[in-house]
Amino acid sequence: MKEVIWQRLKRACLSAAQLRRIDTIALSYLDHRLRREFWSMSRYAVFRDRQPFWDAIKTIASTGTSPKREKAGWLLAAKSGIAIQRRVNLEFFRAKFDPDYRPLLDLYAVPVV
């Protein structure tokens, strides 16, 4: 359901206050476990391309080491046009079948090919 909402928000005509609220909601996704709607939110964020949102993402991606930083890096990679969902899913898939492999998920620190 949340995926559909993110998709439909692309077509909605929103006020500045509503856009700020949606940016806040999108930033809160960085604090939660990774779920399917994260990818819909990332496509929405790339579509809207609001500078205050991306400034906050860059700040988060450049500080500390945490899952929040990793997800911010994924959003920055998605903004640059990289098929990030596929890359992350492949990392998880490989880790599932190779017990000695540790998934490389911090894509902000490592150049994405």
Descriptive overview:
The chain is mainly α. It has one domain. 64% of the residues lie in helices and 0% in strands. It has helices spanning 2-9, 16-28, 36-48, 51-61, 67-79, 84-97. The longest helix is centred in the last third of the chain and has 14 residues, at 84-97. The N and C termini lie far apart (33 Å). The mean pLDDT is 86.
Layout of SSEs?
Layout lengths: L1 H8 L6 H13 L7 H13 L2 H11 L5 H13 L4 H14 L16
Helix pairs in contact: 1-3, 4-5
Shape: globular
As for the number of domains, it is 1
* Class from secondary-structure proportions: mainly alpha
Rounded to an integer in angstroms, the radius of gyration calculated over CA atoms is 15 Å
User: What string, H for helix and E for strand, traces the elements in order?
Assistant: HHHHHH
Task: Report, as a whole number of angstroms, the end-to-end distance.
Answer: 33 Å
Q: Estimate percent helicity.
A: 55-70%
Biggest sheet record: none
Entry summary:
The chain is an all-alpha fold. The protein has six helices and no strands.
Descriptive labels:
mainly alpha, 113 residues, 6 helices
